Recover the amino acids of this structure.
């Protein structure tokens, strides 16, 4: 028995960053909007107040803010022919659930992609010649210049603090000289730096590099955003990644949009509502709405004029597969788009241990750092290197928490008295230099439905076929060498290299930057959605989020996710609402 | 694609009944009545919002020191409301607290303030109420102990404490001051919460110049909240608030010192935020003219309590309120100079630490910035120590808080939940 609900103009499937931004824009345009969120309501004073926000056992170890693995997880194999096994405990990445989504437990690092990142294939082929056959990178159907105003908008929404390196073409000292031109400065100054960042900056400058502060959505001062929502100065408690912020200091849907959106009479949110599939008209050309199940197991059909998939990228791909919309990707033939160009990131780095100096890493924030971009994207000459692209190298101070973090130099036993002594000796004296490497799409890396494993509702879960590629490993090795040179100049007594090897291992945490699978492109032959994130197959269906990235750059994706959502919303309101139908002719 | 402007449509609907029902010639009176009913905040007490009750249909439980009083239905329903009341009936209730059958109303109904209103203002409220949708909702029985169950007791109370009629003339005062005084002492009935009650539950407000002159708008406790002193002249606890600060607080729920929380938040949302800016500035002009009362000398706290309190403060409070108690403007309350912190009675301070608090969102400040509850985390002694520290630091001056005071309030709050 499925209950049919009164229709709405637009339904959001998932209520994190993209669902909240899109709902805010569409309600401003006068539409009736409903958001469906599979998890529960979450707000700062109730769910992560300062009195318990820093509970490591609860949030880090017991994964309270994350999607419950026993309800739905992902299976993994490194290559075709292997049997994929389920990740019974998240490790490598940490998808969220509940209002605010993964945007509740992010670090707040808010980079733009480089202009050349939007032309990955043409830019590199123009400069270096043909790319390897298996490297399936492609150009984005939207340019940096087109996204620029929307980056600016998201950064002002979030109160990002930083130093602009390029304002309208003028290169500014202290910022990133490689970045694309900005129309405006950051709305806030950078965060206060600590000992480790000062050492990193000196070492990087000594090597002729161009260090600048990590752009941060942890507030460097009190900030009121253009919607009137208020954020408080960061207290540098160091509990950002994996945690909600109790001090209103980290940008999230909760702190930047919901106070305004939740007051609107033309917006409603329904929590504990898990969408089963997108429903379509008989000819399949039009979405009629979505079917969802509530916490009591009752099924509902929610009719809607427009459907927006705003879940985490992995879940958006699965919903498309479960709804039977689009052709699943086949790596053997190269046919089909759904699940193609799944990308990740290639993380590595170095640890620096000091003899007498105290780093005091517990004084931190998710985006408190200094960074160099000299080895990212195409900011350096790749001639003869055997790879393209790169990553940023940064020194951030955060995550020094007693359960999660017990740094010891190489060669220390993993348990026992010597281990304890080493932790005690080094806890306050260690910092890290991280490499955040881009991920170039590869023919064999993909997403599809698992043939064996099911979720708590009996639906197939997602299968990930993924490994690091020769491109990834060559790039990572090269940039990690550069990171080691900076780390060695930071005055420590020991430096450990943290390299990244194949095969990809899902256990150690790397980054929650899963992209692709529903990528955007120039035609139905190379993508799932067009440049406005509109499905090629079903013109009143829109797919938000990093699933749209054709490949992943060497930066945290949230700024680009936010900018793409504003870009899409802008064109939906200006064009689609007047003239519903395909916004790009196939 | 269905496209419609729902905001406009809703606004039109909301405005429709008043326009449709009221005679065009009465429109001016009805509109004035609507504004005065907003100033008087009838809707807050006469609506059981907690249980989804219809506006003005009554049924809200009012905790008094003597028991629970349920507010009556003041829609124009014939059986359960005031549909059969004449203008004269309504006037007698507002002027003297008399029901049409001659019975005396309890002064929880603020007729000791409404008595200051002229007949035309009371008639305007009557005219406005008569235009609103009616709702059938009987009033629950009050839970009052004898002898208060006997309404005649109130007649005796009136003889002792009630003073009927308008405020005395003050020819040397400005129009703004006179308007402010009228709003505060009349329809706004600020003293119903912000003045101390004597043993019989009479607000000292009504005894102006007789028994407890210093109690006028110097703070009062009800429903386990202290409504703090709001005297803004020299020596008053709002002396460092400018008239602009007062108007901002009433109009937007926040200013550079503080935020409107639970009870006052309701007043801001339902009443003061809907008042004209001129009226808010008039209120501010009046409050700024009221000098502070003489205060008892504050005894210095025990050094051990200050030391423990400082440690707790740095751990649990300073991240938001600042190491110097300066807060964050418009977000986290400024404790340095705070009227709540410097009040002789620490009830509200203790309660905020135990239960947490939520700033009332407004159009200007949509974020409902909140403080979490510490009742599960801090002992009575720890709450007492940290508040003692707050009350005697950064120039604040108020008496130490004892663990017993915290324990008593904790018990009362547990019992009332």
């Amino acid at each position: 028995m499925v209950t049919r609900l009164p229709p709405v103009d637009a339904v959001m499937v998932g209520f994190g960053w993209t669902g909240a931004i899109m709902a805010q824009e569409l309600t401003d345009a006068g539409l009736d909007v409903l958001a469906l969120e599979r998890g529960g309501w979450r707000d700062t004073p109730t769910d992560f107040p300062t009195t318990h926000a820093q509970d490591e056992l609860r949030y880090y170890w017991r994964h309270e803010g994350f999607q419950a693995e026993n309800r739905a997880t992902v299976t993994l194999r490194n290559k075709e022919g292997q049997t994929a096994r389920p990740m019974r405990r998240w490790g490598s990445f940490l998808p969220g659930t509940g209002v605010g989504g993964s945007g509740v437990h992010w670090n707040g690092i808010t980079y733009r992609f480089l202009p050349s990142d939007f032309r990955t294939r043409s830019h590199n082929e123009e400069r270096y010649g043909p790319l390897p056959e298996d490297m399936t990178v492609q150009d984005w159907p939207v340019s940096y210049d087109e996204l620029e105003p929307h980056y600016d908008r998201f950064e002002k929404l979030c109160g990002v603090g930083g130093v602009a390196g390029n304002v309208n073409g003028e290169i500014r000292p202290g910022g990133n000289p490689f970045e694309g031109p900005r129309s405006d400065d950051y709305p806030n100054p950078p965060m206060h730096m600590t000992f480790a960042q000062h050492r990193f900056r000196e070492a990087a400058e000594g090597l002729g590099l161009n260090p600048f502060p990590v752009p941060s959505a942890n507030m460097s001062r009190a900030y009121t955003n253009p919607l009137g929502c208020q954020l408080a100065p960061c207290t540098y408690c160091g509990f950002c990644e994996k945690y909600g912020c109790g001090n209103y200091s980290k940008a999230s849907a909760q702190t930047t949009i919901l106070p305004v959106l939740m007051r609107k009479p033309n917006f409603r949110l329904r929590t504990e509502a898990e969408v089963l599939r997108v429903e379509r008209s008989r000819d399949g050309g039009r979405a009629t709405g979505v079917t969802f199940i509530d916490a009591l197991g009752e099924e509902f059909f929610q009719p809607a004029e427009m459907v927006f998939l705003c879940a985490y990228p992995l879940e958006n791909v699965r919903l498309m597969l479960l709804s039977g919309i689009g052709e699943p990707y086949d790596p053997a033939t190269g046919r089909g788009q759904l699940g193609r160009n799944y990308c990740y990131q290639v993380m590595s780095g170095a640890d620096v241990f000091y003899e007498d100096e105290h780093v005091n890493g517990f004084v931190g924030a998710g985006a408190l750092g200094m960074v160099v971009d000299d080895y990212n994207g195409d900011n350096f000459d790749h001639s003869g290197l055997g790879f393209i692209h790169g990553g940023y190298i940064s020194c951030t101070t955060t995550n020094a928490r007693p359960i999660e973090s017990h740094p010891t130099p190489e060669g220390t036993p993993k348990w026992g008295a010597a281990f304890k002594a080493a932790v005690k000796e080094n806890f306050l004296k260690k910092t890290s230099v991280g490499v955040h490497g881009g991920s170039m799409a590869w023919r064999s890396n993909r997403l599809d439905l698992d043939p064996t494993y099911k979720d708590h509702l009996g639906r197939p879960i997602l299968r990930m076929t993924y490994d690091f590629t020769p491109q990834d490993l060559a790039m990572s090795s090269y940039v990690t060498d550069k990171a080691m040179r900076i780390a060695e100049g930071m005055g420590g007594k020991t430096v450990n290299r943290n390299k990244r090897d194949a095969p990809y291992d899902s256990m150690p945490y790397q980054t929650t930057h899963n992209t692709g699978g529903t990528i955007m492109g120039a035609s139905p032959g190379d993508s799932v959605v067009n440049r406005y994130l509109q499905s090629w197959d079903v013109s009143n269906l829109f797919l938000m989020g990093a699933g749209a990235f054709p490949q992943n750059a060497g930066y945290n994706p949230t700024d680009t996710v936010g900018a793409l959502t504003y870009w899409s919303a802008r064109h939906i309101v200006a064009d689609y609402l007047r003239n519903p139908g395909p916004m790009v002719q196939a | 694609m269905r496209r419609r402007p729902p905001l406009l449509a809703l606004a039109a609907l909301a405005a429709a009944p008043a326009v449709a029902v009221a005679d065009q010639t009465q429109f001016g009176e009805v509109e004035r009545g609507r504004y005065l009913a907003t100033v008087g905040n009838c809707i807050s007490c006469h609506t059981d919002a907690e249980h989804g009750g219809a506006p003005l249909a009554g049924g809200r439980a009012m905790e008094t020191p003597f028991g629970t009083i349920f507010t009556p239905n003041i829609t124009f329903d014939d059986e359960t409301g005031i549909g059969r009341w004449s203008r004269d009936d309504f006037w007698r209730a507002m002027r003297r607290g008399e029901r049409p059958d001659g019975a005396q109303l309890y002064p929880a109904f603020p007729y000791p303030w409404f008595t200051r209103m002229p007949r035309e203002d009371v008639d305007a409220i009557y005219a406005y109420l008569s235009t609103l949708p009616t709702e059938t909702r009987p009033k629950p029985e009050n839970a009052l102990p004898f002898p208060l169950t006997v309404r005649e007791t109130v007649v005796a109370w009136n003889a002792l404490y009630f003073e009927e009629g308008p405020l005395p003339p003050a020819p040397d005062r400005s129009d703004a001051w006179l308007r402010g005084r009228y709003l505060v002492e009349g329809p706004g009935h600020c003293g119903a919460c912000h003045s101390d009650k004597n043993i019989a539950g009479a607000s000292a407000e009504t005894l102006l110049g007789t028994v407890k002159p210093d109690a006028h708008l110097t703070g009062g406790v009800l429903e386990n909240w202290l409504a703090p002193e709001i005297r803004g002249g020299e020596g008053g606890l709002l002396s460092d608030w400018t008239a602009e600060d007062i108007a901002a607080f009433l109009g937007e729920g926040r200013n550079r010192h503080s935020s409107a929380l639970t009870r006052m938040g309701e007043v801001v949302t339902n009443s003061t935020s809907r008042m004209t800016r001129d009226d808010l500035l008039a209120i501010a002009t009046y409050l700024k003219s009221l000098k502070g009362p003489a205060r008892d000398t504050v005894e210095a706290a025990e050094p051990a309590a200050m030391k423990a309190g400082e440690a707790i403060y740095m751990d649990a409070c300073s991240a938001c309120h600042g190491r110097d108690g300066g807060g964050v403007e418009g977000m986290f309350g400024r404790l340095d100079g705070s009227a709540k912190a410097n009040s002789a009675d620490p009830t509200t301070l203790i309660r905020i630490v135990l239960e947490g608090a939520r700033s009332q969102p407004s159009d200007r400040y949509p974020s409902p910035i909140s403080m979490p509850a510490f009742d599960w985390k801090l002992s009575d002694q720890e709450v007492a120590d940290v508040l003692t520290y707050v009350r005697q630091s950064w120039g604040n001056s108020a008496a130490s808080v004892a663990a017993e005071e915290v324990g008593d309030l904790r018990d009362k709050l547990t019992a009332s939940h």
Notes: The domain at 2-576 of chain A is CATH 3.50.50.60 (FAD/NAD(P)-binding domain). The CA atoms of residues 138 and 285 of chain A lie 27 Å apart. Residues 470-488 of chain A form the longest helix (19 residues). Chain A has a mean pLDDT of 97.
